[in-house]
Design a protein that fits this description.
Layout: H1 6-14, H2 34-41, E1 44-47, H3 65-75, E2 79-84, H4 96-112, E3 117-121, E4 126-127, H5 137-142, E5 172-173, H6 180-195, E6 200-205, H7 206-209, H8 217-233, E7 240-244, E8 251-252, E9 255-256, E10 261-264, E11 268-269, E12 277-278, E13 294-295, E14 301-302, E15 307-310, H9 335-341, H10 344-361, E16 365-367, E17 369-374, E18 384-386, H11 401-407
Helix pairs in contact: 1-10, 6-8
Length: 411
């Protein structure tokens, strides 16, 4: 087994995982306290597409829902990150099965633990398929606009100067938040996800989407509308918002628009130790010790807003398996692919290291555990990493489930 250097291992031994003491997860119309928010962040896990149907019509299948649900319950997860979203393929939103499946899984898990928060995503992508999705009458009404019988317009969401048009591929662009059509689209998504039980939203790469909104005025207007809908219709009349913040926060008139910040881990390679990686303050654009504070949406003030760091997925570099500490790739792979390529022993050791390093380095930070995420490296696991224990119910599990449970202080 490849070992992290001695200092890392010693740091792990000095810190004992927290015990499963009783903690509060209560919030409501008045907002969420910092302590309750951090209780949630301490139990955050990425579970991509947990709420998506097993076999979406004409799409790639998503398997192992039953074992994913079992794992979520068994490890005591409280925030289910990236549980539902579209990265393209927006026409699937027209299918009843898309919403029915999500609602069923949400209800099943809430019956087991009503405190679980499911996160939907409003991402930095729209494709021409949005042209196939009707604009509901309530979206027009909530924006004080005349009700029309029409579909969303892809073209109307794009930056008028051509910025980030066809950014992902032809017919697949970054929507411009300063355009009213983009605001209607994101409002429709957020409210629709709320209607099936989601209480959190990840707003993606806010600076890309905010290409024409440097002062965050358009973002502030949309978020105000989303919170207004939540006050009337969300399960607990509040929604928890975050986004990737390359500049450390999302402030508008001295107040944070987000309940917490988030960012990729930014793993630094150790070139002299093939395939090993560490975390470091001031490496590239990492957020450690740089989360901006201010007045939180719930009214409390802080010098540094709590934040999550996660194993990001963004493809592979030009030179897989080669160390280059000047770019975001880790040994030529995105963070979750790099992690998936390691041995089970190293993955478990690295999770323990990262968890304790963050506690000691910046107590405002919390590690979002990897539960299920797409990978781009060679694999026999259907293009995804899963933390599940390997079993007949999930033969492609990577085996970090027990480690996560221990770090979270559960028996």
């Amino acid at each position: 087994m490849r070992m992290l250097f001695i200092a890392m291992l010693c740091m792990q031994l000095l810190v004992i995982p927290g015990t499963a003491q009783q903690k509060s997860y209560q919030f409501g119309k008045a907002g969420i306290s910092r302590q309750v928010l951090e209780n949630y962040l301490d139990r955050a896990i990425t579970m991509v597409y947990l709420l998506i149907p097993d076999r979406p019509e004409g799409r790639r299948p998503y398997s192992y829902h039953a074992d994913d649900v079992r794992m979520v319950k068994d490890i005591g997860a409280k925030i289910i990150g990236r549980a539902i979203y579209r990265w393209g393929g927006e026409s699937l939103l027209n299918k009843a099965a898309f919403w029915d499946t999500a609602r069923t899984i949400v209800q099943r898990l809430h019956a087991s633990d009503p405190e679980i928060v499911f996160q939907g995503c409003l991402f930095e992508i729209v494709t021409e398929e949005v042209n196939e999705v009707p604009v509901p009458a309530w979206v027009f009404k909530d924006y004080g606009l005349p009700v029309e019988s029409r579909n969303f317009s892809y073209k109307a969401m794009l930056n008028k100067g051509g910025k980030f048009v066809d950014h992902w591929r032809k017919g697949s662009s970054v929507p411009d938040i300063s355009e009213r059509e983009t605001q209607l689209w994101f409002y429709f998504l957020a409210c629709s996800y709320m209607n099936i039980g989601c209480e959190a939203f990840h707003l993606g790469q806010i600076e890309l989407i905010g290409m024409n909104d440097p002062g965050k005025k358009a973002w502030a207007g949309l978020i105000h509308k989303i919170r207004g809908y939540a006050e009337k219709h969300a399960r607990r009349h509040w929604v928890i918002l975050d986004a990737h913040v390359p500049y450390g926060g999302m402030l508008y008139e001295g107040k944070s628009l987000l309940d917490f910040n988030s960012f990729p881990l930014r793993v630094k390679e150790v070139p002299e130790k093939p395939y090993e990686g560490i975390l470091a303050v001031n490496f590239l654009d990492g957020i450690y010790n740089k989360s901006k504070g201010g007045i939180a949406p719930s009214g409390w003030q802080c010098d540094h807003l709590p934040y999550l760091v996660e194993f990001d997925n963004f493809g592979r570099g030009k030179a897989p398996d080669v160390a280059d500490t000047t770019d975001h790739f880790v040994w030529g792979w995105d963070e979750i692919s790099w992690f998936a390529l390691q041995s089970a022993e190293y993955r478990n050791s690295w999770l323990r290291y990262a968890y304790h390093w963050l506690q000691q380095t910046d107590p405002n930070g919390h590690l979002q555990m990897p539960g299920n995420r797409m990978i781009t490296c060679p694999n026999e696991s259907e293009g995804s990493y899963r933390a599940n224990m390997k079993s007949a119910s999930c033969p492609i599990g990577y085996g970090q489930e027990a480690t996560i449970k221990i770090l979270w202080g559960l028996p």
